[in-house]
Specification:
This is Dickkopf N-terminal cysteine-rich domain-containing protein. This protein is α+β, with helices and mostly antiparallel strands. Among the domains are: 84 residues, no CATH class; 49 residues, no CATH class. It has a four-stranded mixed sheet, with no helix packed on it. A two-stranded antiparallel ribbon has the order 1-2. The longest helix has 14 residues. It is globular, with a radius of gyration of 24 Å. It starts with a helix and ends with a strand.
Length: 292
């Protein structure tokens, strides 16, 4: 290889370098904010979004996303995808929405998104990226905690700020006041149901009260709540099914990785109180599903 060929090869190899440096510089200039030591994803330009292979691609957690993207569960899109921020302040959001900081799946960055001002009050269940007003928190409240409750921001150093029936929990992205019914008596017909991160709420239980009576061997107690009906809780003894799991009992069918009671939408109602005959998609079986 002569010197002209060598020079041409080196030039070809170095050609993309300015583009790489420009891309890295753009990301550094936009990534300036962090909360409690965790990066907040910036609002990326269309140019940078187009260069990220995983932008708006489906993901399981943030490790599937290229920095500075995080894996966001979005009920509006019925999907979990790699996302950046949408806003920096309420003024950048449409009327009736506010700019909220959201935690992404795993240990990914926070993102800021415009979310609707909804109907759910303090201590009521919510969806962090809601599709409807019934799933969203009222003004001044944040949907936080792994289970999802509407709460006021609080300081862990001042736990009494939350008031009776609440406690300050170390939730992401910021601590909020979560509900607790452990120090009071629930109304007649309701039970004090335990949730994640120490939260607990009074609710009418539909299905077996498996927090009080343990589930049979091989099954796990699962508590389901719906923001649209905050006074109700669906309690189930769940048996997993599908790959690497035993088959369901003869009286049940496998749907969504768990064994469920089958039903006939054209026949008499065989579902328990609070459940309805439901089909997740055209290829799925008809099963009894919480009626919310």
């Amino acid at each position: 290889m002569n010197w002209r060929s060598s020079a041409s090869l080196i030039a070809a190899l170095l050609l993309p370098l300015p583009l790489v440096l420009l891309f890295a510089s753009a990301l550094r200039s936009e990534r300036t904010e962090s909360i409690h030591g965790r990066q907040v994803s910036p609002i990326l330009s269309e140019e940078i979004r187009g260069q990220l292979r995983t932008y708006h691609r489906n993901c399981r957690d943030s490790s599937n996303c290229e920095p500075p993207l995080g894996c966001l569960m979005d009920a509006r899109a019925h999907a979990q995808y790699c996302a950046d921020s949408q806003c920096l302040a309420d003024s950048q959001c449409p009327d009736g929405q506010t700019c909220h900081v959201l935690a992404t799946e795993g240990v990914g960055p926070f993102v800021r998104h415009c979310l609707p001002i909804g109907l759910r009050g303090e201590g009521e269940p919510c969806v962090k990226v809601p599709a409807t007003l019934e799933e969203a928190c009222a003004r001044g409240l944040t949907c936080g905690g792994r289970t999802g409750f509407c709460g006021r921001s609080c300081a862990l150093t001042s736990p009494n700020d939350c008031g009776p029936g609440f406690f300050c929990a170390d939730t992401l992205p910021v601590p909020i006041c979560l509900p607790s019914c452990e120090q009071r008596v629930c109304p007649e017909g309701q039970h004090c149901i335990q949730h994640e991160e120490g939260a607990s709420t009074c609710a009418r239980v539909l299905g077996p009260q498996c927090q009080a009576t343990p589930c049979p061997h091989g099954q796990a107690c699962r508590v389901i709540q719906a923001p649209q009906q905050p006074e109700r809780i669906w309690s189930e003894c769940e048996q997993r099914c599908g790959d690497r799991f035993p088959p369901c009992p003869d009286t049940q069918v496998c749907d969504g990785w768990s064994c469920k009671q089958p039903c006939d939408p054209k026949g008499p109602n065989t579902c328990d109180e609070g459940y309805r005959c439901f089909q997740r998609r055209p290829s799925s079986p008809w099963v009894c599903h919480p009626d919310w």
